[in-house]
Amino acid sequence: MTTPHVPGVLTPAQVEQTAASIVAAQLPSGAIPWFEGGHVDPWDHVQAAMGLSAAGRTAEAERAYEWSRTTQRDDGSWAIRYDGDSITDAHTDSNFCAYLATGVWHHFLVTGDRTFVETMWPAVGRGLDAALTMQRPDGAVVWASANGNLVAEALVTGNASIHLSLRCGVALADLVGSPRPDWELAAARLRHALDEHPERFVDKPHAMDWYYPVLGGALSPASAAARIDARWDDYVVPGFGARCVVPNNWVTGAETCELVLALDVIGRTDEAAALLASMQHLRDPDGSYWTGLVFDDDVRWPVERTTWTAATVVLAADALSRTTPGSDLFRGAGLPSLPRDWKVDIPCTR
Description:
This protein is mainly alpha-helical. It has one domain: Glycosyltransferase, CATH 1.50.10. The protein has helices at residues 12-25, 42-54, 58-71, 94-111, 114-132, 156-175, 181-196, 207-215, 221-235, 253-265, 269-278, 307-321; strands at residues 81-83, 86-89, 92-93, 144-146, 149-150, 236-237, 241-242, 250-252, 292-294, 299-300. Strand 9 (292-294) and strand 10 (299-300) form a beta hairpin. Helix 1 (12-25) runs antiparallel to helix 12. It is globular. InterPro entries: 6-hairpin_glycosidase_sf, 6hp_glycosidase-like_sf.
């Protein structure tokens, strides 16, 4: 398989080195922690696995997905945090439960391996069903469950990501011959909330809340472009990347590369490539990536090189280079379309 690369920004050898830095942190169990010696969370673990798939490290990616399959709890959820083999935060995050569907669909796009999908399908289904136990009657999904009690707040980023995962889940369901129209309805209700009812979500100053509805496919092309334009100057720091939080003078690599992916979704590939180039100051000589930089002080913070940052760099390079079949993921390849003109609330049928 050809390695993703972006001429003038990243060579194939550099992308391979970045993938190797992720593998170096992977535990014997298959889990991929934030960094060597760090903790594991199920969402960033899947993101790291996706980066490995895109870089051609399919065996290591499948070891990561096997960890997800074997650590899933009886109710379909995963804990929020693992340190080694121990659960150190047993609460449940709805987006963490749903994201396995995105990762499995991505791996299928890259490899075409139906046997892998059939192995992972039960875990995908249970994960999405667990996430949807947290969907409110208004369509939004609350972000967490603590000690069996739902946390009331719904987050924009998490819901946009769940929207993408539901669409991936519907595609996987069709692939294995087990349609799930309830997931399609849940995705439509969620999309309606994101499109038409921002008041249903907690308003946060994070870049993710700005671009993730574009990345998660929850907006029409015109609305997506308008959303990016509206806050561009607030979040993008020329020559450095994207701020994580406004107004902090702190740029982060993963957020910058997710914005690259969002720009690619709306066809702004030149801007996306320039943005990918602008965050290469975070690259370490070993191919890993520092999480962020406080650019006024020229200080890297936090002082860690994260696997999920490295993985998102690889995914951005793949999307821009159109190298693997998985490069189309965030552009919605093979995913079901949902109506874009909901005018009234869709009633809850759960």
